[in-house]
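--- STAGE predict ---
source: upstream dedup step, 1 unique chain passed
mode: sequence only
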Amino acid sequence: MLNVAQLSAGYGQSRVIHDVSFQLGAQEILAVMGRNGMGKTTLLKSLIGILPRAAGSIQLGSTELGDLPPHERVRHGIAFVPQGRMIFPTLTVTENILTGARGRVDKSMFDEIYSLFPVLYEMRGRKGGNLSGGQQQQLAIARALITEPKVLILDEPTEGIQPSIIKDIAKALKEIRHLRRLAIVVSEQVVSFMMEVCDRALVIDRGRFIHEAPRATLDAQRIRELLAV
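--- STAGE serialize ---
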């Protein structure tokens, strides 16, 4: 589904990501774990095109995305849920969702989104700024889904969210994967959330992957040790 090869990226002359390579399978949920400042967000921003690559390749299927601007990557099937959610506080829930649309939206798509996130249906007329952090996170995911992506990318979706809502988001991501038949990349620091949702985990440190394990052999304690270094 997604093939990243020898990707380097950063800010100006400063490289943050160094020759990173990984593949993402169809309907796979991949967790990228790492401490703050180790390159998680930079990696995800380079995948969506917010940060230009310095070198390397980003392929979605047979399409090379590396030189395309973000809106073209969205058209090809990449969707991004940024850290901090970045919803529009003065727009209603429904209006926020529609900002991600690329044309006419069928009622069935809204029905599907509201079945995944019932609270958004209940608050569909409420302004985004009046929602809780967890509700805003669900709204940000819904806005990304309206683009009908093949790959959904989320940057630290549990940040600032209470534990009960974290469980709801984990459940929703697994439902989305099967319902939409899409692949998911999620950056995270909460090990329990990672263990709940992912099929495979990568640990990033100083812009390079230092550990990889499939779900069957994931060792939560080992991940915690790596994140504590």
